[in-house]
Amino acid sequence: MSSSAFSLKRTPGTAPGIEHDEIANLPVERERASITCIDYCPAQVSIQEISDLEGFVNYHRPDWSVVRWISVDGLADMHAIQVLATKYNLHPLAIEDLIHSTQRPKIDSYGGGGSEFQARLFIVTRILFITNGRLQHEQISIFLGHNTVLTFQESRRPEWEFIRQRINAKGSRLRGNDASFLAYSLLDVVIDKCFPILEYYSDRAEELADLILEKSDPQLINGIHQLKRDLLQIHRVIWPMREVVSSLLRDSHECISDATRVYLRDLYDHIIQILEITETYREIASDLIDNYMSSISNRMNEIMKVLTLIGTIFIPLTFLAGVYGMNFRHFPELEQPWAYPAFWFICFLVALVMVLIFRHRKWL
Amino acid sequence: MSSSAFSLKRTPGTAPGIEHDEIANLPVERERASITCIDYCPAQVSIQEISDLEGFVNYHRPDWSVVRWISVDGLADMHAIQVLATKYNLHPLAIEDLIHSTQRPKIDSYGGGGSEFQARLFIVTRILFITNGRLQHEQISIFLGHNTVLTFQESRRPEWEFIRQRINAKGSRLRGNDASFLAYSLLDVVIDKCFPILEYYSDRAEELADLILEKSDPQLINGIHQLKRDLLQIHRVIWPMREVVSSLLRDSHECISDATRVYLRDLYDHIIQILEITETYREIASDLIDNYMSSISNRMNEIMKVLTLIGTIFIPLTFLAGVYGMNFRHFPELEQPWAYPAFWFICFLVALVMVLIFRHRKWL
Amino acid sequence: MSSSAFSLKRTPGTAPGIEHDEIANLPVERERASITCIDYCPAQVSIQEISDLEGFVNYHRPDWSVVRWISVDGLADMHAIQVLATKYNLHPLAIEDLIHSTQRPKIDSYGGGGSEFQARLFIVTRILFITNGRLQHEQISIFLGHNTVLTFQESRRPEWEFIRQRINAKGSRLRGNDASFLAYSLLDVVIDKCFPILEYYSDRAEELADLILEKSDPQLINGIHQLKRDLLQIHRVIWPMREVVSSLLRDSHECISDATRVYLRDLYDHIIQILEITETYREIASDLIDNYMSSISNRMNEIMKVLTLIGTIFIPLTFLAGVYGMNFRHFPELEQPWAYPAFWFICFLVALVMVLIFRHRKWL
Amino acid sequence: MSSSAFSLKRTPGTAPGIEHDEIANLPVERERASITCIDYCPAQVSIQEISDLEGFVNYHRPDWSVVRWISVDGLADMHAIQVLATKYNLHPLAIEDLIHSTQRPKIDSYGGGGSEFQARLFIVTRILFITNGRLQHEQISIFLGHNTVLTFQESRRPEWEFIRQRINAKGSRLRGNDASFLAYSLLDVVIDKCFPILEYYSDRAEELADLILEKSDPQLINGIHQLKRDLLQIHRVIWPMREVVSSLLRDSHECISDATRVYLRDLYDHIIQILEITETYREIASDLIDNYMSSISNRMNEIMKVLTLIGTIFIPLTFLAGVYGMNFRHFPELEQPWAYPAFWFICFLVALVMVLIFRHRKWL
Amino acid sequence: MSSSAFSLKRTPGTAPGIEHDEIANLPVERERASITCIDYCPAQVSIQEISDLEGFVNYHRPDWSVVRWISVDGLADMHAIQVLATKYNLHPLAIEDLIHSTQRPKIDSYGGGGSEFQARLFIVTRILFITNGRLQHEQISIFLGHNTVLTFQESRRPEWEFIRQRINAKGSRLRGNDASFLAYSLLDVVIDKCFPILEYYSDRAEELADLILEKSDPQLINGIHQLKRDLLQIHRVIWPMREVVSSLLRDSHECISDATRVYLRDLYDHIIQILEITETYREIASDLIDNYMSSISNRMNEIMKVLTLIGTIFIPLTFLAGVYGMNFRHFPELEQPWAYPAFWFICFLVALVMVLIFRHRKWL
After folding, report:
1. Which of A148, B166, D6, E231 has its Cβ near the most Cβ atoms within 10 Å?
2. Cβ atoms within 10 A of the Cβ of D165, count?
3. D26 to B158, D22, D78, D96, E252: CA distances (angstroms)
């Protein structure tokens, strides 16, 4: 049942969370994740694809680096996740959520305030995209520290390219701001991705509305139901994002700067807008179903009415033909030479009167 | 799909907000906006159409001016927007919302309290109007400072004329009050604009109700659905205004005076009233659909019933005619001279008895 | 569209509120309002009909008067309203609401705490009544000061008579209490007025339920819809009263004494009770519609079933008659003397067997 | 309309509340209430039926008495109510609610904290019971003081007997606790009374579900509607009890001891449980209606289908019989000796083919 | 009516709560409960099946034991419950809830802060499982003290085995934590148990969706209704768990450590996820019902349409056959030798034209 927003992978009775040393033992196919590290400050940028992860984590970041963004594409490389989890001291529960990748969007704050873990915001979001006409969504896990952002995604996301371009652009607002602004920008891309998707569904709805007027193909109703389910799924994925961003706005956290908070308000407005559009489209889809149903039922009623009218006009005529087929010996009309033409005239008259009556009562 | 309240123009991956120096690069047709500046105090008023914007912003406002209202008609003149944004130090996010002009009504407070920006309230509202029988709405963006109001609208709004008249009228309450009262008056005009629109839909609903009684034109149902969708759209546009005004009432802001707040309460009442009327009309529209449906189905049932009754009356008669058309050699009735008249008599009798039974059972 | 609870009279662009000197210029037919002034204290009562309003407002109230109640019947006498508004320093927004008389029930508190206006509670309520079988409601505006109550209503309300009697009754609780208790008593009368109205609709619903069992008159469905709409309107009028009284209970205001607050809690209970009864009756009305619909559809199904059964029984018989009407030269049965009676016997047998089958399957 | 939860007895314009000296003047039939007074402490119990009420109220309670419970059966004995109201200083509004006995469950706290009245909790609850298969409910009014409980009910409630037994049982928790625990125990009995009533409706629903499978009696649908209305009424009566108990839990009141509060939490759980069960049963009742409706409509469709199939099979055969009944002079088939048997064979063939087609298409 | 989530066992009038010395008198079949006691600390574990309960409770726990978990399988052994209740000083209300075992999930905190009882959290939860294709649920009662956990369940739960394994595993997080972590782990197992159950219902829904496309068996609709009711029951059971865990998260309690609280947040996320999936599946079930209904009605309409078309085509032909069966003496056509073939040609032509018309109108 693919329409459930988030799938079901937990096995009851397993321990909650995944410890750092347990990660490497997880039974997954060993494929290397592609890891990119970007360091930047207003004056300088450095982008490196990392092949030797152990070597990388042993070096300190350059002094000029204000923000370091490590982006991991692929969640099956347990070794890479283990190394990064140990280096950045990630919480076992967060690692579990990151690997299982079927979480609903949420935000958790771990550590900070003198606890054993460093202050980290762990944000789970889901990016929507359309592949082969089917709506898909993938989990994106973002760890935000004071000047580090870690992102984990199932596959290389083309959307990140826009962010890299803005980091490369000297003087861009993104480059001049801190790590929380980078995290905001990533969420912003994820949310803005919904607008073209909604446009796709808007076109799809218009197309279906046109088809309904033309014919009554049972495939259409499946199409509308699919449209409605997809919109529901968008709603299901975006709705918890509202909670995430509103919690970022409401609760002050040491990793989020005031400058970023202003922009989060803007992001919140976009989320509300997407939810409202989704709501509107779902109502339009419901209207489409109603339209389809009533067009079907109208057509059927129309057919039955016309057929019954035809039947009704012929019933008295058939009776009349039956009457003059009777074999009574004394049957005065049968003898008359004008009887047969008169029969046809009467038939014509009866049919005409009935049609006129039906017309007058607006039955035809 | 034009029924979505707010359209979809964001491209994913673009940077949030629009910096002042980016504005002029935006790819829009270069048409000049018409800009009006009104300065007033209880004693004096000055209205000027501004053609040389750079010259204008370099001069200080006259000392006597208590409130300055700059009204910009047309959102395509990026140069004008850039000059004003720089002069009044508008926030990049607000500029983006202002230019994209597809925002839902909202209120944002920028700056104040020692931040880099001056205290500004940025209010987005939408004015409803009816053009060629179709409901339209345009965004109106209002910036409210301590003694300045900036309004940006897509086209010259005739509704502003009423405000200008009241500013011109010596001793009017508007003239004697501060900038926040002007902002309130603008919102008040926008909200009051809904009353004649609702009256239009009230007339439309009555008209449709009358037409339904007369005939069952499938066009009618489209008309009712359109009515319902328009009312939903009014609701969608006005509902966030409730939030805007309630937030103005609730959160004290340095730009809103206490005198204005009393009037905002009145505005809030009007919004609630409009929302309730919209709700009522939508229920009436739903009732119209129900009425139409049940009138259709009643008519169809009535037709089928009458036709089936006619058929049923003739069925035994046709059988009887068939009987006396049989060719049995020994067929006593056929020989009798009274047989044929008797047949007609029996037919009449059977039909009569059936009609009486149907009448008695209230089937006819 | 008379079913909207509150009508639409605002013209967009007009200034909010009505100043005292604007009142007299309002274009209404000049008919004199009837004004009654009642002064009372536990020991003494004085009731006067006021014809010379200017003279009246120039005199101070007698020293013994604890509460003064000025009741104005008729909202078209702008002169009277102007004089009283000036004397009692009423707020322009309140005067506007009072004159337009299409407000939903609400409460506004003006002035007090050293502002330019004196402390005033402005309460708008609506009294429901039934005229010629149609539900009507009129606005009643109540201004409550420290020891003065002003009421404005469109016409002389017979319900006030009960209040006057209780003021006249020496030792009554009303007489011994302050102005806020008088305001409470007025609201109490307005709310209690709903109980007989709800009883009227209870009777109406029972009547309709009986009629539905008897016959299927399309007028009935209109009657039920009207019932439902009227109940909705009662709900719409009473619902905001809940908010009004709950706000009186919640927010302490200098004009409301603690003694009165205990009674307001009782009033609140009555409002909740009315809202619940209205809700119950609306559900009953919905059930009535369902019952009507299913009784219609049952009857129709019953008819169609019986008619089709009749048709079905005769169809094989007609076929049989057709068979023996054929003109084959070699047709053994036709020659037999017992053939014709046998035909009737077979017809009877076939019909009997079909009826028995239909009976057995519970189709008849 | 007996399905409204609470009836309508208020006359508009009457004074709110009933003063102690007004009680005796109320126009009710003079029947003596039966009054029982129970004094108890952990060590001792005394139960007395009171016939001389004046005498009784003049004596002080025995010193050993920790809790005094005065239970009044019958609300028509205005004298008794007057005497007790004076003795225990009951609030006029509470007396009015007590006598009118059509209140929805509620809680009012009067007096305490140095006011003219002593601290009293006035709790109105309603006990549900089934008489002759019809759901009834009666008001029970409970006044709770520091060590006194007064209960007023319309008739002697058998449920109180359980409480008396527990008071009589030495060492019972009820006996060892204070007055608020007695009040809690009374409410607990009232709520627990709902469980057997819900069991009754559970049985009733199962019974109706079985009957629906058997036949389509229109009486059934009335039965289900009655079931649904009764469950709604239980909900209406219990729902405000939730508010009452939650308010007792939330707001600390001097008459409620901490020990009792723990037990009130348990009572609250029971109320939630009853509300949930009611909700479940109402959904089951709705399902029953759906089932009934769809069983009716299935049966009807089945009938129509079979009858139409029969008709359709015979229509071509009748046509064929008609053909060979034609009187054309040149009609080769008629002359053949095998023609008549061939006709029957063709008829049989046509019918068989049609039945096979219908079978193949799963129409039969 | 087995679909109610929680059954009805309270007898009205019985005393609330069950005292320790009352337990043994309860009339239940005397079957021995199986009791297991597990003591553990990071370094050591000891598991013992307890047969001599009295002996057991008289010994102190070993000094090294950090957490003691006593698990009681079977609620009919009143003696065991009495002994443990006395030993661990359980509250009478909690014992009542524990024995009746029909509670909805809830949390109660007893004692602590110097009261007569020790600080205890009493958590009622329900575990869902599927036996013979039917959804079942059993109550699990958990008492949590500072370093003791008591669990009572109706039968030996296989799910506990996972917990025991993790306790046995040296260095597991469970073994290194305190009693509240054990309580959390138990709740976690109970919640995670839902995931395979939801998967079962996902498969069931897909299966039903496939069957609907194939045929219209009335059994299907029962299956879908059962699916919907089961999902509702899961929702009913899990929904209050949300409240339980959210209350554990919100209100700090001395028995819950901070380390555990982080994990409870994770548990809360799982509960929300289950509730959302349940919601999704219920919508899918509703869609299934709609699909079934419309597939039924489509099939019926299709049948009626085809049959009526067949009837309609033959009606004019039968009339024509009737015409030429008439016995008029002067009947020119009858004499012609080409008349009979012409009749068949006309019949064929009429049928063809009608079929073409029906095709053109898309009726066939």
Report:
1. E231
2. 13
3. 67, 7, 7, 11, 56
**Cβ neighbours of D78 (radius 10 Å):** 20
Residue C75: what residue type?
L
8 A C-beta contact, residue E6 and residue E135:
no
Counting as low any pLDDT under 50, the low residues of chain A are 1-5, 7-8
Residue burial A206-220, b: 16+ Cβ < 10 Å; e: rest: eebbebbeeebeeeb
Per-residue pLDDT, E137: 92
Q: How far is CA D25 from CA A104, A279, C173, D29, D97, in A?
A: 68, 62, 17, 11, 17
Rounded CA Rg of chain A: 35
Question: Which residues are D149's β-sheet partners?
Answer: D69, D144
**From CA D216, how far away is CA E278, in angstroms rounded?**
34
Q: Which residue in this structure is represented by tokens 């305190």?
A: E178
- Local confidence band at C64 (pLDDT 50, 70, 90 cut-offs): very high
Q: A346 CB near a chain E CB, below 8 Å?
A: no
| Residue pairs spanning C and D at CB distance below 8 A | 152
The structure tokens listed for C29 are: 């037919």
Q: Which residue has the higher pLDDT, C152 or D219?
A: C152
Q: pLDDT tens digits, residue range E222-263?
A: 888 889 889 988 998 999 999 999 999 888 788 898 889 889
DSSP state of B44: -
**pLDDT over threshold 90, residue B151:** yes
- Tell whether the model's pLDDT for residue B4 goes beyond 50: no
The pLDDT of residue B280 is above 60? yes
Residue A112 has what pLDDT?
67
E-assigned strand segments in chain E: 34-40, 45-50, 67-73, 106-110, 120-131, 134-144, 148-153
At residue E189, what is the residue type? V
Q: Considering only residues 238 to 267 of chain B, which have any Cβ-Cβ distance to chain C shorter than 8 Å?
A: 262-263, 265-267
Q: For chain A, say whether E189 makes contact (Cβ under 8 Å).
A: yes
Cβ pair E192, E218 in contact under 8 A: no
pLDDT, residue D351, reads 93
Q: Say whether pLDDT at D5 is over 50.
A: no
| Chain B hits for C95, Cβ within 8 Å | none
Q: Do B196 and C12 touch (CB under 8 A)?
A: yes
Pick the closest to residue A249 from A167, A180, A152 (CA basis): A180
pTM above 0.80, yes or no: no
Among B217-231, C172-186, D289-303, top mean pLDDT goes to C172-186
| pLDDT band at D72; cut points 50, 70, 90 | very high
Q: Which residues does C215 contact at the CB level (< 8 Å), separation at least 6?
A: B362
What average pLDDT does range E134-155 have in this prediction?
Answer: 92
Which helix H or strand E contains C352, and what residues bound it? helix C339-360
Among B161, B188, B329, whose Cβ lies nearest the Cβ of C16? Answer: B188
The per-residue pLDDT of chain B, averaged, comes to 86
The dihedral of CA C199, C200, C206, C209: what is its sign? negative
Task: Give the largest CA-CA distance in chain B.
Answer: 125
**pLDDT of A113:** 62
Residue D127 tokens, joined:
């006990």
Q: CA of C201: which chain D residue's CA is closest?
A: D1
Q: How far is CA D29 from the centre of its chain?
A: 29
Where would I find the beta strands (DSSP E) of A95-230? 106-110, 120-131, 134-144, 148-153
> Which of C132, C139, C154, C119 has its CA nearest to residue C5?
C139
pLDDT value for E3 = 40
Which segments of D215-338 does DSSP mark as H helices, in order?
A: 218-250, 258-323, 332-335
Residue B312 CB partners (closer than 8 Å, separation 6+): B354, C307, C310, C311
Place of tokens 């982080």: E262
Pairing of strands B45-50, A44-50: unpaired
What pLDDT is stored for residue B319 in this prediction? 92
The torsion angles phi and psi of C88, rounded to 5 degrees, stand at -100, 10
